[in-house]
Amino acid sequence: MNKRNRMIRWIGVTALLLCPRLFFAQPADSAGVLEAADFLEMVLNNHPAARRAGLLDARSAAYTRMMRGNFDPKLYSDLQQKFFKGDEYFTISESGIKAPLWYGISLKGAYATASGGVLNPENKLPAGGQAVLGAGISLIRGLVFDERRAGVQQARINTRMNEAEKRLLRNDLAMEAITAYWEWSAAYAQLGMLEQAVEAARRRQNGIVQSFLLGDKPAIDTLESFLVLQSREMELNDAALIYQNTAIAVSGYLWDARGNPLKITDMLRPSLPEKQPEDVVKPDTVLARLGDAHPFLELTRQKIRLLETEQRLNREQLKPRLDVEYNLLGDRWQFGDASDGWFGNYKWGVKLEYPLFTRKERGKLELTAVKLLDTQYELQQKYIDVANKFRRYYAAYEITVRQLELARSMASDYEILLAAEQQKFNIGESSIFLINSREQKLIDARVKSIKLNAECMKLLAALQWSAGELAE
Q1: pLDDT in tens, 271-326
Q2: Which domain holds residue 121?
Q3: In the 3-class helix/strand/coil scheme, how is 39-104 assigned residue by residue?
Q4: Is residue 299 part of a domain?
Q5: Mind listing the pLDDT tens digit for each residue in 410-445?
């Protein structure tokens, strides 16, 4: 269906949902059809649960931005003064910018001033101040991996986890919604079939009464036909209640684009699958891609990636910390001179740090290894659970399809028996009891067919749901 036709159909469906009173006077045959695909699309676009799932994208973007913020340059300013008994001991200031880079490197640019009567000799600076250009690097721990880079990698993994969680939420919502839809469809079909049965019983009742008045039928036949009519009307009332409840359940999944709830009206009906449900799901194909495609398994895989990142970071903590810093010093804004050259004035330092027993670091690493192994076992178990769930639904689907074929065959045979019994009744070789008995068997078979047909459609949806593909 092209985009223009789809838009026209959506406008029509929305009008039927929003304006029920405009259509009450129209015949039921003119009711618009809410197709299952259109219903599911409306649910996945407008339902609050679907919109909440969409917030996971915004959450991922915010978390990624936060982690990348660890590499943002920072302005800083530091001022220290000391006055005692009216004397200025010192005024020391430094302002500048620091910029951490990817591979454990940080750059620094600053300007420092120092003045006062009592200055520590190492704080003495040129009279006009001193420009500083510096760089620092972690040579062992943090050279190839550190907290900043781990945070960015975890943000990427978190984005994939949120995407898998969003698919899971939408998949579950789609399953709940489509189950309610096919129950509504079955209730609508059953209601229509029982309305026809009541009308047939009423016509037969009128005919029997007329035959009794003419002396062709005994009075007991009028009572028999009247009891059948009452029984059918009770069944119709029960079916009407079920239809009303299923319509309310379906309405709970319908929302417009502005977030307003919609309501199923009398002029909107579900689609009725008339044909045999096709085997659109190939079990071997689904099982072959299940491990890579199912969002439930993908979520667990990304948990493993997260733990692997944590393990890598913890392993980095076992290395000694060796930080080297070099600062190029200027006389005010001038670096170097004719005698010392550009790099003649500098300050540098080195810092070495390593715990003697590394118990804390080794404990963290061992704990992460245990969590990682546990999650890997969890992934294996989840794969078996998901695959077995799909196989169970497929086995139930195959049996239900065969049951549906039998129910339809039985309904067809009961129609033949009823027609034959009616002919025998017309020539006086049968009774109203047998006619009603044959018709009740036919009604039961048709009700069974309707329920099995809806069950087939629900199982087809369950197959896609168990494969994680219903909301795709």
Answers
A1: 887 555 555 667 888 888 888 889 999 999 999 999 999 999 999 999 999 999 99
A2: 67-149+307-371
A3: HHHHHHHHCHHHHHHHHHHHHHHHHHHHHHHHHCCEEEEEEEEEEECCEEEEEEEEEEEEEECCCC
A4: yes
A5: 999 999 998 898 888 888 787 888 888 888 999 999
Backbone angles phi and psi of 344, in degrees to 5: -75, -30
Question: Which of 317, 340, 371 represents a domain boundary (last residue)?
Answer: 371
- Strand 130-138 relative to strand 321-331, pairing: antiparallel
- Domain presence at residue 140: yes
Please report how the helices 432-466 and 359-426 are oriented relative to each other, as an axis angle in degrees rounded to 10: 160
Do 429 and 366 belong together in one domain? no
Domain count, the chain: 2
148: left (phi over 0), alpha (psi -120 to 50) or beta: alpha
In this structure, the answer to whether residues 156 and 20 fall within a common structural domain is yes
Q: Decide if 472 is inside a domain.
A: no
List the structure tokens of 124.
């003495």
Is 90 within 8 Å of 122 (Cβ atoms)? no
Q: What is each CA distance from 93 to 78, 80, 90, 148, 310, in whole angstroms?
A: 5, 6, 10, 29, 39
* Amino acid symbol at 311: Q
CA-to-CA distance for 162 and 61, rounded, in angstroms? 10
